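We emphasize that the prediction below concerns an isolated chain of 189 residues; any contacts that depend on oligomerization or on bound cofactors are therefore not represented. The input was used exactly as deposited, without trimming of termini.
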Amino acid sequence: MLAENRTNTTWRSKDYSLLAASFIPAAILTWGIHEGAHWLMGTALGYDMWITFNQVGLAQGSYTSTGHQILVSMAGPFVTWIQAVLALNYVRQSQQLWSYSFLYLTFWTRAVAMIISFLANANDEARTSLLLDLPLWVVPLLSVAFVFALTFLGSRALKVGWKGNVVAYLAASLVTAAIVFSDQMLFMG
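Result of the prediction step, given as a token string:
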């Protein structure tokens, strides 16, 4: 284990350092399974798909049905929800502060995507809302509320406190910037 199990509420600076560092593998996993799920669903449905660190799309053409577009759009959020449930279970069992990164990022990624949907482009859940003739915010809000509730429960179970959540916020901001900017530099040229 990266650190001994903690049953008290006193986290040391070493624990916070491990939490911050754990956001690197957590981000690789979170983005990888999320984008991979979109790609896998599209490919399973017979579409030629492209994938980068932060995006997936059709290589050419368009979806043959609204149902297919919804399935591809929601495949990423669906695996992110599964990750949140599994991460909460692990957080509760392990009582390891570093494991919180795998849970926190599920909330962070969906919340940031929801904000971007309101400001610029409809994300997975927002696109699904529109395809279902719902207001843009309905599916994103439900998604964010779900992963927020699990993250809140995990935070309480670990007694993360304000320091741990500030570390999580800063680390999540950094890994998000690294992924988005590297994706743009490497693939969008």
